[in-house]
Amino acid sequence: MFTGVLHTIQSPEDLRALSPKQLEQLPAELRRFIIDIVAVKEGHLGASLGVIELTIALHYIFKTPEDRLIWDVGHQAYGHKILTGRRDSFETNRRLDGLSGFPKRSESKYDAFGVGHSSTSISAALGMALSAQIDGNDERQHIAVIGDASIASGMAFEGLNHAGVTDANLLIILNDNAIGIDPSVGALKRYLTNVKEGTAREENIFEALNFNYFGPVDGHDLPKLLEILATLRKIKGPKFLHVITTKGKGLAQAEANQVQYHAPGKFNATTGELNPKHSVNLPPKYQDVFGHTIVELARANRSIIGITPAMPTGSSLKYMMEEFPDRALDVGIAEQHAVTLAAGMAAEDKIVFCNIYSTFLQRAYDQIIHDVALQNLPVIFCLDRAGLVGQDGATHHGAFDLAYLNCIPNLIIYAPSDAIGLRNIMYTSQLGLNHPIAIRYPRGRGHILDWQLPFRPIPIGKGKCIKAGGTIAIISIGTVLQNAIEASIAFGDQVGIYDIGFLKPLDTNLLDEIFDHYEAIITIEDGTILGGLGSSVGDYAFAKAFKGTIKKLGIPDKFIEHGTTEELYELAGISSRAISENLKILLQ
Ligand SMILES: Cc1ncc(C[n+]2csc(CCOP(=O)(O)OP(=O)(O)O)c2C)c(N)n1
Ligand SMILES: CC(=O)[C@@H](O)[C@H](O)COP(=O)(O)O
Ligand SMILES: [Mg+2]
């Protein structure tokens, strides 16, 4: 038997019909609903718990979906999903064929704009607001809800700068909880703290940029939020509301340990305790191989610098930040700045490891080309989360790096096939390369327990024969090599396996040998099929008039949604089963 009000809400229309008394009990119910499901199914937790009252108030006051509501990043939108017709499907969140973990236009008319990467909401909402103006629609409101870490990004500033000289119906709500995934950084954070504490000496920045400024207001005071939003709804032009919230609100552990409860994995829904992690005898996560190796290298070499744009925990640069706080920098959500900062330091002979998730490096493409590669500055890019990342889905897969980097002159591109390879290429890179290098590795754990072996340099541009074979050669790049090895076992000596390692410079000597000895080649990569290893091998084979068959396996030319990595490898046709099927066909 259902009690309470949440089960009566199929859409914001139902929400708007609630009495004030009923509305009062909704935040606790919504929090409990989210906690119960995320505890079991996993996902982002803290951000959604922090905006429960704001979510209710927004849908109560604004006429969504006619009024456009955009959640920046979107990891805080679970309450929004549940109140907008997705309560009963919420337990499929982030599962294959289930709800996306982020707002998505194709999923609901209430998801005004697809998100996942941060700091896009102001530009998108402004675009919609200006479109309404052009259409003569003076009534519609456009709301961007953006966090304190996301608003510090360049893109958000570009949007603010433009919005301030328009009279567009735009409401920017700054959800200020003083933390991103890790604690927020930078001068803006300091300014916002001063505003909250009433000690800001400067003119209000947002008023100075021509916004009608309101706040700061307690984001957990629902009646207050309802009152202020009702006022704001009637005001035309650009408006700015500064809301103060607590990430993880309503779950004691999540409030106390906001970094860990950003996306805590499974936990006990009643006590809030995290499930014990049994990582004792597991191979390390690649991020930790990076994190521990850079510390080891930095101990021996004072010129080594580490840079992360807002992902100290996710990249494990936090280990270096603890030991060498002056040489390990979190620059906030600022991928473009991170790359050019690294270039500036490399120009001054610093050895810079710039660690960025593959998908977020897309933001800094011009900086890689113009500021790093064109000047041939030996920045060491470490691209974490390369390949298919799983439940975060299409916005977060590192599907494109091999292709988007492959066409850049001067750049060395390497994908280790295991943790030892990652460790050794990091060592090799800091010995001094004459070029920038991009090292890409996946989310999750490798397969080697004993990885902290003495460093050995890796010869640049040299691939490896893992095993010679009969008629078919598999040429692999990166950790997907394990799938190739697994697939080949059943075929014995018929199949040779090669770990090419470097996409650039390509080991053409090794390719010449392969062309001489084999009738058929399978290339395998966990990146898009267009422009990566398969394309490079295919181009070279064409140039050398290779007469055999080449089968290219990689992520197909479409966006891959969310699911477990195993499911997605299968979908993309790069699982060991898929490789095995291709081997069978070629051997017929
Ligand atoms: C371009 C980009 N870089 C990095 C990330 C990873 N990321 C996701 S959420 C987040 C922190 C967001 O913090 P904030 O805007 O304060 O929102 P909160 O989590 O506090 O709600 C980061 C760095 C991202 N999604 N997009
Ligand atoms: C919302 C967001 O972009 C991040 O929280 C992302 O989900 C982190 O992914 P990892 O779990 O791979 O660090
Ligand atoms: Mg925040």
TrEMBL record:
Its EC number is 2.2.1.7. It comes from the Bacteria. Mg(2+) binds at D148, N177. Its cofactor is Mg(2+); thiamine diphosphate. Binds 1 Mg(2+) ion per subunit. Thiamine diphosphate binds at H75, G116, H117, S118, A149, S150, N177, E335. One of its GO terms (biological process) is thiamine biosynthetic process. Residues 284-448 form the Transketolase-like pyrimidine-binding domain. Pathway: Metabolic intermediate biosynthesis; 1-deoxy-D-xylulose 5-phosphate biosynthesis; 1-deoxy-D-xylulose 5-phosphate from D-glyceraldehyde 3-phosphate and pyruvate: step 1/1. One of its GO terms (molecular function) is thiamine pyrophosphate binding. CDD domains: TPP_DXS, TPP_PYR_DXS_TK_like. Keywords: Isoprene biosynthesis, Magnesium, Metal-binding, Thiamine biosynthesis, Thiamine pyrophosphate, Transferase. Belongs to the transketolase family. DXPS subfamily. Homodimer. Catalyzes the acyloin condensation reaction between C atoms 2 and 3 of pyruvate and glyceraldehyde 3-phosphate to yield 1-deoxy-D-xylulose-5-phosphate (DXP). This is 1-deoxy-D-xylulose-5-phosphate synthase.
